[in-house]
Amino acid sequence: MLKGKNVFGSIPNRMTKFEGEQYFINDIVSIKSRQKSKMYVKEGKRIGRGSFGTVTQSYLSKNNTEWSGPYAIKRVVKFPKVESLELEILQNIKHPNLVSLEFFFESQCATKDGGQLCQKNFVMEYIPQTLSSEIYQNFDNGYKLPTKHIKLYAFQILRALLTLHSMNICHGDLKPSNILIVPGTGIAKICDFGSAQRLEGNEEPKTYFCSRFYRAPELLLNLKNYTTQIDIWSLGCIIGEMIEGQPLFKGDNAKSQLDEIAKLLGRLPPEHESSVNESQELKGALHDCKFKKFMRWFPNIEFFDVEFLLKVLVYDSVKRWDAKQLMAHEFFDALRNETYFLPRSSSMPVHLPDLFSFSASEKKTLGDYYNLIIPSSD
Ligand SMILES: Nc1ncnc2c1ncn2[C@@H]1O[C@H](COP(=O)(O)OP(=O)(O)OP(=O)(O)O)[C@@H](O)[C@H]1O
């Protein structure tokens, strides 16, 4: 087992003390070289404290004089005999829209009752902004998030989901604070795979996870046969939040969360929907009715944008569009047809990030959708 030791000898109690700590790690694994080495770690300010761990801005050094970083170190408790999907994802999936892991180490800390706790430490690239701060800094200053930014971030989240979902992995906790934004570039990366699940095999699906405002109806109803489409619902809520500057559905508990959703989507179960299959006319009328409701709810967005949201915020997870279908939607034509965007608090337009240079495995997953998603060459 790898052991984290304080430079001054004793093992720090990291459950209570974080700020400004420096210590030495005997075995830190570089993800790039897969080699172990010795390093000093200097932990600075705490940038996140979630339900499962803490994240601190940190620096690394081989010699205690030259420091590299900043990095973000996420520390979580390591449970014996539990395989970490979070580590597996961070170690093995390299993707432009997933936060990248640079190093990994294990450490121990003393508990209050004199015992020892084993911890996993993920040393990730540090990205100073989140989609949450991006949304609220705009709205707090009286600005809306520009439509192009909304599309830019939504497309990249979908691109990351395309890869995770092709492996039958759901992220399970998509929300604005788990989307990191590289300042000045428009690049968005998903972080926090602590709630991720591989939805296959005989594993019992988790029943309580995902922050309430972003929980899909099937999770609020405690259904166990949910799919990776729960992340698409969360994305719909995130897009709504980017448009409105506040969470789209704000319930206090599962029931009131469903009530909030019903204000936009109508009551669940939609008894009329079963009869809709028999009548195209009725189906059309229902669509018009929903369309009008969405138009009233989001008065400042365009026709195609409403059409897009109607494909995402769907009760029935089978009818909810998947990542590749959504990436091909007209909603993203603005990204296919344009080259520049204006980052927040900048007066100079910059190139949009490279959104369409798909890897071989992404192309394979996209299949026929590939040609619909990439910008046309004429
Ligand atoms: N690489 C990073 N760079 C900068 N900030 C980060 C990074 N990774 C995580 N954070 C910030 O720290 C917060 C907490 O991290 P993370 O979500 O992984 O921990 P968690 O314990 O699962 O939190 P939660 O319960 O809130 O989901 C994130 O929401 C994000 O704002």
Short description:
By secondary structure, this protein is an alpha+beta fold. The protein has two domains: 19-125, Phosphorylase Kinase, domain 1; 131-373, Transferase(Phosphotransferase) domain 1 (Transferase(Phosphotransferase), domain 1), CATH 1.10.510. Helices cover 33% and strands 22% of the residues.
- CATH fold type of the largest domain: Transferase(Phosphotransferase), domain 1
Roughly what percent helix? 25-40%
Domain count: the total is 2
**Biggest beta-sheet profile:** 6 strands, antiparallel, barrel
Helical stretch tally = 13
Could you spell the SSE succession in H and E letters? EEEEEHEEEHHEEEEHHHHHHHHEEHH
The name of the CATH superfamily of the largest domain reads: Transferase(Phosphotransferase) domain 1
> Which strands sit side by side, in order, in the main sheet?
2-3-4-5-7-6
What's the CATH architecture name of the largest domain?
Orthogonal Bundle
pLDDT below 50 for ≥5 consecutive residues: which ranges?
1-18, 271-278
| Rg, Å, rounded | 22 Å
Give the class-level CATH name of the largest domain: Mainly Alpha
Q: Give the overall silhouette.
A: globular
Overall pLDDT, averaged?
Answer: 87
Distance between the termini: 57 Å
Present as ligands are: adenosine-5'-triphosphate
Secondary structural class = alpha+beta
Would you count the extended β strands for me? 14
How large is the share of residues in beta strands? 15-25%
Family: Belongs to the protein kinase superfamily. CMGC Ser/Thr protein kinase family. CDC2/CDKX subfamily. Belongs to the protein kinase superfamily. CMGC Ser/Thr protein kinase family. GSK-3 subfamily.
Protein name: YGK3-like protein
GO biological process, one term: cell differentiation
GO molecular function, one term: protein serine/threonine kinase activity
